[in-house]
Amino acid sequence: MTNTSSEPLFFYISTRGGSASTWLSRSLSKHPRVVAMHGTRAVPDFSVGGNYHHVPPEGFFKYLIECTGTTQGEKFFGALHLYYGAKAKAACVDLGGIFSVIIRDPIRRINSLYWSNAQRRINPEDPKSQDVLAFVQSLPESAFECPPTTELTRLVYKYEDAKAAEDSTLIEHIKAPLRKIKYAYLSGGAQASAPAPAQDRRSRTEIAAEVAKVFHEYAQSILASDLECFRAAQAENRIIKMEEMVSSPDYFRTTVWPNVAPHLDCTEAFINDVFTSGTLNKHSYQDDESIEIYRTWPESYRTTMQQIIDLLGREEMESMYSGLGYTMPWK
After folding, report:
1. Would residue 331 count as lying in a domain?
2. How many angstroms separate the CA atoms of 81 and 116, rounded?
3. Cα diameter, the chain
4. pLDDT beyond 80 at 172
5. Is the pTM of this model over 0.70?
6. Residues 6+ apart with CB under 8 A from 198
7. What is the DSSP letter of 76?
8. What are the pLDDT digits (tens) for 210-245?
9. What CATH number did the domain enclosing 240 receive?
């Protein structure tokens, strides 16, 4: 199935965590004709006993097209933050959608994801009260030794696993997709009382080892995803810089909107609604802030990042980030 129309049939924006994708989906859905689905919360559970990672991208994109059809074209559907990297590009383009990506300063992005996860590991009962930097500084750097990085692990979704695809009925070719929508707020009912949390018997050094492993995993996944996204979107210039997206109405109008719904009006009223209602997502880019974050990382963290960059290809990685205006603190 190839779209011959000049208008896109849907949009898909590829990104990973820490890139303001929740803010963007909410902002796009403020437009009277746009519905922007985001991640697991707004995506229907197509498969039997599984989730959207069991479903090939083409199956989900056909669902988006059918959603538009059920509204007689009055609503234009799209999604963000489902299939990472370039996994969805071929299906998106082939089915008549617009494929774009969001990239953010890698230092701040990795640190943001690592910090929130580390807080939960340091104190699961009250994570937001935890100062990760203080915890790191309270122990010797040797406690935060990352696993060795000798090769990169490729992310494999269930639909890419032949056996998983064989064992699941998947979506029955989307016979009645709208009947399968399962929003989280509709699944309510009597909640079982939670058992009392088990006493945390981990030592501080054991927690430190867990935290270091988390950093290693985030650094690898974010850097690899950024490179894959960049390669997939560079030729068509469909790269959205997160810091500009959340702070500049002009950038939103001239760069974000053409990657979503270029056939629909991006009115001044809509832009004003995006940037004046609610709490803005503030992620302005500051060179010195990223440099300072990098300096606070244990030496093992910095070494890990350099090893991953070398494995991915240093020249290409540094060219990509510097071309987007990001400072590499180690240069």
Report:
1. no
2. 19
3. 62
4. no
5. yes
6. none
7. E
8. 999 999 999 999 999 999 999 999 999 999 999 999
9. 3.40.50
Residue with tokens 């974000």: 256
The answer to whether the CB of 78 falls within 8 A of the CB of 35 is: yes
DSSP 254: I
What is the residue whose two structure tokens read 């009250």? 126
Residue 225, classed as helix, strand or coil, is helix
Q: Using one digit for the tens of pLDDT, what is the confidence trace for 139-164?
A: 999 999 998 888 888 777 777 775 44
Query: Residue 51 sits in which domain range?
Result: 10-187+202-323
- List the one residue out of 105, 106, 100, 104 whose CA is nearest residue 255: 100
Domain count, the chain: 1
For 21, the token pair is 């994708």
Distance CA 26, CA 67 (A): 18
Please tell me the distance from the alpha carbon of residue 59 to that of residue 52, in angstroms, as a whole number: 10
Residue in 75, 54, 23, 37 with CA at minimum distance from that of residue 264: 75
Cα(117)–Cα(108) distance, rounded to whole angstroms?
Answer: 14
| pLDDT tens digits, one per residue of 89-143 | 999 999 999 999 999 999 999 999 999 999 999 888 888 777 888 999 999 999 9
Residue 283 lies in a domain: yes
CA–CA dist 21, 42 (Å, integer): 13
Let me know: does 286 contact 264? Beta carbons within 8 Å. no
Q: What is the DSSP string of 25-39?
A: HHHHTTSTTEEEEET
Give the pLDDT confidence of 242-289 residue by residue, as tens digits. 999 999 999 999 999 999 999 999 999 999 999 986 555 555 556 688
SS3 326: coil
